[in-house]
Protein: Helitron helicase-like domain-containing protein
Amino acid sequence: MYSVEWQKRGLPHAHILVWFIDKIRPEEIDSIISAEIPDPSTDQLLFDIVTTNMIHGPCGTLNSSSPCMADGKCTKNFPKDFTNDTVTNVDGYPIYRRRNPENGGQSFIKNIINTDIDIDNRWWCHIRLC
Structure:
């Protein structure tokens, strides 16, 4: 199921819903989606895409007038906590792996929006996967 809308500047915006037959496992999620800054020595292009298009903020105490702020909190729930493993919560939504440098991550930044690596490499844009 999908729906295509046009944003204010006339650019298309798609909402796509995909059903899985079986419950997706965390290791399958990690093979498709990343919420970490890529290693620039491994893939400089992907590093540039993520750091240009996929960092949320600044908001919170750094910018309390940010559009995402309401009642002193980010409405998008940033910054996200670091976690070593991807898990799915009770309602099926994933909590993506976001490792800190001590555990193999690339950055102390906790405001990375989850991203699909293959799509971002082709389109050089912000893509939000939920």
Q: What stands out?
A: The mean pLDDT is 79. The chain has one domain: 2-123.
